[in-house]
Amino acid sequence: MFTFKHSARAALLAITGGTMLAASLGGAGAAHASTPPHQLGFSSVESCTGLSGTIHWHPGLVKTKVKTEQAVLTGTLTGCSGYNGAQAGTGTVSAVLTGRSRLGSIVENGTLTVNWPTASGLNPSTSTVSVRRAAADQPFSVFGTVASGAFSTAALSTNLLATTQTGTGTSHHPVTGQSFVNTAPLAVRVNLG
Question: pTM to 2 decimals?
Answer without folding.
Answer: 0.77
